[in-house]
């Protein structure tokens, strides 16, 4: 046998294998290019909604001896409304310029914004400490250490503050959920969890809802922490749950978006983003979804923003960005505008997308990473820039910059309709509108 023949056969085999790999690789590349394209199905169910009633005008100060109607204002959970739209229909009087009335400074990271219950703000710092802060003066009313590590907003209802923590102690890699008295911070009940939780809780009709890193979604009795039902997802549930029409919506780290019945936790639908990376899950859903206009809106670490029909999970649109989308969307129809989705990306851009089609309405080049969710207050959308450690306000309809504040990191601001409360990297600021003299 010629000594060249095995070598020739080897060459033929290697050449054939290379050709096969090139063919498969080309097909894979073509598949990725096709599957990663933007998708738009605007005819998927989309329901216009009536204009929301604005909160009281902050320009109308109560007379001496009269009760301020905003003293009873409640921003109950992350995202303001239970469907997590992150939209407060504030009066046009609540617009820049602002002046800083007070600040609560510190060194501990503030990844999430506070909630508001009447005259107080309730804030959960990343070291697991819960603070009650007088919203008019910035005075710390009380604080209570509830764990070693946390990354969520609390929830407030009926004189109680509810919190979830990632680590309940330094040596325990599992969290807890607890209820505290809003008046004095006294622990009313506390329940250890078998897993970590950074899912901002939601309270409705006497029940508390949140997810955990082992993929468990919980419904607890708010009065005493008793488990009413649990649901096991395909992966970690890190974002908050959104509630609308008797269903809870959430994304997980298995690349799925799901809807379960609020009443008993039974699955209504589950849809996967599998396929946009050649047979593997498209990415992880850290984003807390928003439900509006009969759609579910959510960002994904695969770089896309998604919209699904809230009734059955059908994909309405997918819009790609150039980077991770950890951010939670704000969804609103600001005065004079159209239904829009506002969201930032690690590509350094902040987007306004048509809520029906996913088309880009405007894009603001911010530079740096935008990791936290946006908040629409009146006709201004606020977002924070993690790289620049700043907060920006843009006209919700136009995208023009109207506000700039040299403090910020993740989730930017909440409001009671009279003041703007801005979350810096480790400090909280109370801002009031400057009145013309």
What does this structure look like?
By secondary structure, this protein is mostly beta strands. Helices cover 7% and strands 38% of the residues. It has 1 helix and 35 strands. A 5-stranded antiparallel β-sheet has the order 1-24-23-22-21, with no helix packed on it. A 5-stranded antiparallel β-sheet has the order 2-5-6-7-8, with no helix packed on it. The longest helix has 32 residues. The N terminus is likely disordered.
- Structural class, judged by helices and strands? mainly beta
Percent range of helical residues: under 10%
What's the total count of β strands?
Answer: 35
Distance between the termini: 103 Å
Unreliable residue runs: 1-35, 275-280
Quaternary arrangement of the chains shown? single chain
The largest sheet has its strands arranged as: 1-24-23-22-21
Tell me the fraction of residues in β-strands, as a range.
35-45%
How many separate helices?
1
Average pLDDT metric: 89
What is the overall silhouette? Answer: globular
Radius of gyration: 24 Å
Main sheet characteristics: 5 strands, antiparallel
Main features:
single chain; 437 residues; mainly beta; five-stranded antiparallel β-sheet; disordered N terminus
Q: What's the structural blueprint in terms of helices and strands?
A:
Elements: H1 4-35, E1 39-40, E2 74-75, E3 87-88, E4 98-104, E5 115-117, E6 120-124, E7 129-134, E8 140-145, E9 155-157, E10 160-165, E11 176-181, E12 187-192, E13 202-204, E14 207-211, E15 216-221, E16 227-232, E17 242-244, E18 247-251, E19 256-261, E20 267-272, E21 290-292, E22 295-299, E23 304-309, E24 315-320, E25 330-332, E26 340-344, E27 349-354, E28 360-365, E29 375-377, E30 380-385, E31 390-395, E32 401-405, E33 413-415, E34 419-423, E35 428-433
């Amino acid at each position: 046998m010629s000594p060249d023949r095995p070598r020739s056969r080897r060459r033929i085999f290697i050449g054939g294998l290379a050709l096969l790999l090139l063919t498969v690789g080309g097909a894979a590349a073509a598949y990725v290019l096709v599957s990663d394209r933007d998708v738009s199905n605007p005819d998927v169910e989309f329901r216009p909604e009536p204009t929301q009633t604005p909160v009281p005008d902050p320009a109308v100060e109560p007379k001496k001896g009269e009760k301020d109607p905003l003293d009873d204002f409640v921003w109950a959970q992350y995202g303001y409304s239970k469907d997590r739209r992150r939209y407060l229909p504030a009066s046009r009087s609540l617009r820049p310029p602002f002046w800083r009335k007070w600040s609560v400074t510190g060194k501990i990271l503030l990844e999430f914004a506070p909630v508001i219950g009447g005259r107080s703000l309730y804030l959960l710092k990343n070291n697991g400490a819960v603070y009650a802060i007088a919203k008019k003066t910035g005075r710390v009313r009380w604080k209570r250490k509830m764990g070693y590590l946390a990354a969520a907003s609390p929830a407030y209802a009926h004189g109680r503050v509810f919190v979830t923590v990632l680590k309940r102690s330094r040596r325990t890699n599992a969290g807890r959920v607890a209820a505290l008295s809003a008046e004095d911070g006294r622990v009313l009940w506390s329940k250890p969890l078998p897993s970590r939780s950074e899912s901002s809780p939601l309270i409705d009709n006497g029940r508390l809802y949140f997810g955990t890193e082992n993929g468990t979604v919980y419904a607890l009795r708010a009065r005493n922490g008793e488990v009413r039902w649990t649901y096991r997802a395909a992966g970690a549930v890190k974002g908050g749950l959104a509630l609308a029409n008797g269903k809870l919506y959430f994304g997980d780290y298995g690349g799925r978006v799901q809807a379960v019945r609020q009443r008993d936790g039974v699955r209504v639908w589950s849809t996967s983003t599998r396929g946009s990376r050649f047979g593997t899950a498209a990415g992880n859903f850290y984003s807390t979804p928003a439900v509006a206009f009969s759609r579910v809106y959510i960002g994904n670490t695969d770089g896309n923003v998604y919209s699904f029909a809230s009734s059955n999970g059908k994909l309405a649109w997918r819009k790609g960005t150039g980077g991770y989308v950890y951010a939670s969307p704000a969804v609103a129809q600001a005065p004079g505008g159209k239904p829009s989705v506002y969201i930032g990306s690690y590509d350094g851009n902040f987007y306004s997308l048509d809520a029906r089609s996913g088309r880009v309405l405007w894009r603001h080049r911010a530079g740096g990473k935008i990791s936290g969710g946006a908040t629409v207050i009146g006709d201004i959308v606020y977002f924070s820039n993690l790289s620049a450690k700043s907060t920006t306000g843009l006209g919700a309809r136009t995208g023009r910059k109207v506000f700039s504040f040299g403090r910020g990191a993740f989730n930017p601001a909440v409001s009671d309709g009279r003041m703007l409360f801005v979350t810096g990297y480790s400090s909280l600021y109370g801002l009031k509108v400057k009145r013309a003299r």
